[in-house]
Request: fold
Amino acid sequence: MIQEITTIRQDTAAEKTRRATTDLSRFSAGDYVAGPKWKVLIWYFINYYIMNSAFPWPYGLKSRLLRLFGAKVGRGLVIKAKVRIKNPWRLSIGDHCWIGEEVWIDNLEDVTIGDHVCISQGALLLTGNHDYTLPDFPYRLGKITLEDGVWIGARSVVCPGVTCGSHAILTVNSTATKHLEAWRIYGGNPAAFVRERVMKI
Amino acid sequence: MIQEITTIRQDTAAEKTRRATTDLSRFSAGDYVAGPKWKVLIWYFINYYIMNSAFPWPYGLKSRLLRLFGAKVGRGLVIKAKVRIKNPWRLSIGDHCWIGEEVWIDNLEDVTIGDHVCISQGALLLTGNHDYTLPDFPYRLGKITLEDGVWIGARSVVCPGVTCGSHAILTVNSTATKHLEAWRIYGGNPAAFVRERVMKI
Amino acid sequence: MIQEITTIRQDTAAEKTRRATTDLSRFSAGDYVAGPKWKVLIWYFINYYIMNSAFPWPYGLKSRLLRLFGAKVGRGLVIKAKVRIKNPWRLSIGDHCWIGEEVWIDNLEDVTIGDHVCISQGALLLTGNHDYTLPDFPYRLGKITLEDGVWIGARSVVCPGVTCGSHAILTVNSTATKHLEAWRIYGGNPAAFVRERVMKI
Reply:
């Protein structure tokens, strides 16, 4: 008898959770605003037709454009071709950083990058997520912080809300879903601890 | 003695399997035809110079172009910039779906997408494979089906022949090599079961 | 007492290793030269505006351009649109190879490709690395060799210094960090042995 009742309860619970299905037509960004409309619009074209173009625009020009649209950019930024940056007014970059070819900074939320950070070719910083437990699939955004000396490997992905501690390394094609501790190397999907980063000198 | 004979047999078998090597010059698509030549040619340019361009063409225009070339496209399709779709006449999309930036639907074979499906930025739907056990490397294609409410994470890959059951989720940068069961979350390469997807309401 | 002394020693060592931090402003390519400046400059534009363009330039034209800039290219090369090749004078390709759409051969160092090799769409051959144990982050480059009959799967990455033995296969979205043995299939990140590649005939 007890067995039976339990089974009925589970079915009812399952039934209830299954009743709610995703309905993307009900999605709204809520009170989220990327930025002033004119800024978003103008930046769209600068982003795709200058930053993301194959033409080797000087790093200095690209740094100035980023600053003009609200980014904090330190000295000596190396920023290759085919880079995408969603919202420069949500970006802060320290001194002597490298942003490789085809890096994609998809910063719906703030991305804060320290000094001497290397983001290798094809890496993706992902600040946007959705709450998949709700039918209207609302945004679940998260800031990303890369502290001094961090190295994000080629084709790697940093997920929303992740902080990479000072001098942490994410290996090639890996996916950081959680915080990376300082001076440690992580790899895989989801990225797991591989070994300590020890300097020779 | 038996030992010796066995060894000889294995060597012979190994010798035989090793004799056949890949010869890509002998590849032919067999009786596979993507579509009428004029359609393939015209779509090539629409695909790369409109669908895949960075310019923010209206979603409605892109939906109409897809329908004009034989795709079934439901209401309310959100389809961002830089998307690639190989053969629209092999594509069916339900209502209120989202196709993120730089999604690549490489549909040599049919791709069928239900309602309220989200394919996030950079994801790849891969219908083409090769039989690597034959020297002429023939096509081994497989249809892909994404049922209602499925979410394919950013930079993920769905392999040929895979069906993602209703409301299944493939996490960021993962690779679905086998069917994903409904209401389950999968991640990694190859993608493995992570947890159930339970709705809050 | 001994415990205490040991602790002090460890702290001092830790202190010392932590003292050296990454300083990208001190990076120099050392004695590394990609090639003659005029060659690098002209190839830059051919690479991005012809090889990497969406336009379906004939395979023969692209093969001739590669040869003109020093690549060894065998007969029957199939080379799709949107391919990137860093330094053609550091590239050798055998007969009847396929280079898929959006393949990126980032060959700061030599890349040697045998006969009948298939590099599928979106794959990345990565020859550049950095010594992260030194503050000035010097180059640590490594040649890549793909022997006859190798198949590099879609969206996969081959890391610096890796040799893929004859007829080895790297599966979709995987990352080869070490040598792949001949006639074996590898997958995951880092790529691990999956099974033998056995030919049907």
